[in-house]
Structure formats: C-alpha cells, structure tokens
Amino acid sequence: MRRFQCCPNPSSSLAIPCRSTSPIVAGSEGVSNRYSAATFAVYSIGVAQLPFVGIVRDSVSSVILPRISFLQREGQAREIIILVANATRKLAAVFLPVYAFLMITGPQFLTVMFTKAYAASWPIFAINLTLLPLSLIEVDAVVRAHEKHRFFLLKLQIVLSVLMVFALWYGVSRFGLIGAISVVVLINFLLRVVLAVKFGRVLGAQLRDLLLFKDVAKVALASAAAGLLCLFVHSIALARVSSALVILLICFAVFSATYLGAILLLAVPTTDEREKLRRQLERLPQLIYPRRSVNSMP
Which of 8, 76, 198, 247 is 20 to 30 A removed from 32 (C-alpha atoms)? Predict the structure, then answer.
C-alpha cells in the first residue's frame, strides 16, 4: 500500500506534493506520536489506499500530461478543458462505483483483507473513502503543465500545512482517530477546490463548461442505483450468511451487473467505446481457450 507520492514535473523545478497521500502521511505521523502501536495499526489500516486506484489515477494523469503541456504552449485552453473533462469521465467510471460499493461492503472488505482484528478500522476507512470522489477533481496534470504558477502552489501548500498542523492538534485531541482522518479529507478537499478554481480561471472556464461533465453525473446516478440494490441484498446476506467473503462476492455480482446495465441504459459509453468492448469480448475465448481457437481455424 502506497503512503506517499509527490507531483514532480520533469521539465521544471517544481515538486510539490498534490496527491491525497501527502496529508495522509502527516495525519499518520500525528496519530503515531499520540497513540499506542496497536491503535496506530487500526488507523493505518483505515487509511490504507487501494493500489489499483493509484495506478488508474497515475495512468490517466501521465497520459494527458504531455498533451496538456502541448496545448498549453499552443494557447489552446479550451482543448485543455475538454481533455480534462474526458479524463474526469474515465476516472469517474472507476472511482464512483468503487466508492459506492465499498461504502456498503467496507466492513466485509476489511475482514477479508485484514481479518476481524481490524474491524475497528471501518469508521476511519469509510471517511478515507471520501478521497475517491475528491480525486475526480483532476488538476494534477494541469498544475504541472503551468510552471509559471509554481509560487501560487508554494504559498498554498504553506498555508494548508500550517492549517493542518493546528487542525490535527485540535481534531486528534477532541475527536481522536476520526478527527485525524477528517482533517486529512478536509485538507485534500480545500487543496483540490482551490486549485480547480485557480486553474479554471487560468484556462478561462465558464459555467457552460459544466455540460462537459454530464457523463460524470450519469455515472454517479448509475453508481447510486447499483448501490441501492446492493444495499438491499447486503442487508439480506448479513442475516443469512456468516462468511464475509461470500457476502462480498454476492454483493459484487449484484452491484456489477446493476452498474453495467445502468451505464448502458444511460448511454454513457460512446460508440467507439462500445466497439472496443465488443472486440475485447470477441477475443476473450481466444485468451481462455487458445488451443481450441487455433484448432477451429480453417
């Protein structure tokens, strides 16, 4: 599980942490200095990040960064906004359903992954999951492409760092572990919102540009629909099934089928994306039964 990552720009001297993992590290240090090793272990599990989330996010960011840098040099701000909207759409298709699913099945997920000994980590994990939808505010690539605004980033980081020190002191002393993770989420929220507003102005974004994110709303609606049905099945499974793994698998099957059906019904995938999916499904038998596929060829 990754704990820290910076946002270096190879083409500049700017290297300011703007990933959600940076405040998590600060929060973990604040907890470790105040609580026992056993309590800190509970907190550590609660703030553990899903590896594939970082992989997806970093992959999208690394793909669009060169294009944004090129468009920035060419002065094509409108194209940057469209590119960011498309990237957000792709991230939403992964992050929002994962968020909805884990908010329902989180206790079983933690039990399967870390045993029942860390059941107390669930409230912390639930708050930490809020970082998933916050990650949809994809500004990292835009920030790295605009090197001339590095001093704004530096000042913002200094202000938020000072704010976090006092907020952690108050949150941990008043609300314990819940206070610590709540401060982490709040600082991430402030960081991303301020950067989004700042660079929205830099790019000349307008209210009508919100229409570019309409598919994100559709994905959220599909995730909510799948989540409601999954919640119903989850409540039944809890009363009749004792195995956390079995409950997790049942809920995953129900949620996945409902979510996929909902996004197709809402026409979220484009024609090109549908065609790519069809070709991948056609290749699936060849991947599962390579010899049979070869023998069946004329």
Answer: 8
Tokens representing 269? 């995938």
* Alpha-carbon span 96 to 160, nearest angstrom: 27
Residue 192 and residue 190: Cα distance in Å, rounded?
A: 6
Give the pTM.
0.81
Report the C-alpha gap between 23 and 11 in whole angstroms.
Answer: 25
Within a 10 A sphere around the Cβ of 117, how many other Cβ atoms?
13
- In sequence order, what are the residues at sequence separation of 6 or more whose Cβ sits closer than 8 angstroms to the Cβ of residue 135? 20, 53, 57, 91, 95
Largest CA distance in the chain: 73
pLDDT (tens digit per residue) in 4-41: 333 433 333 333 445 555 565 555 665 666 777 778 78
DSSP string, 239-283: HH---HHHHHHHHHHHHHHHHHHHHHHTT-S-HHHHHHHHHHHHH
Q: Specify the amino acid at residue 167.
A: A
Distance, C-alpha 73 to centroid of its chain: 29
SS3 8: strand
Q: Are 218 and 263 in contact (CB under 8 A)?
A: yes
Residues in the chain: 298
SS3 224: helix
pLDDT one-digit tens code per residue, 98-143? 999 999 999 999 999 988 888 889 999 999 999 899 888 878 788 8
Residues 6+ apart with CB under 8 A from 138: 57, 60, 61, 84, 87, 88, 91
**Exposed (0-12), middle (13-18) or buried (19+): which is 131, by Cβ within 10 Å?**
buried
Helix (H) or strand (E) holding 177: helix 150-203
Q: Which residues contact 108 (CB under 8 A, 6 or more apart)?
A: 244, 245, 247, 248, 251
Instruction: Give the start-end residues of each E strand in the chain.
Output: none
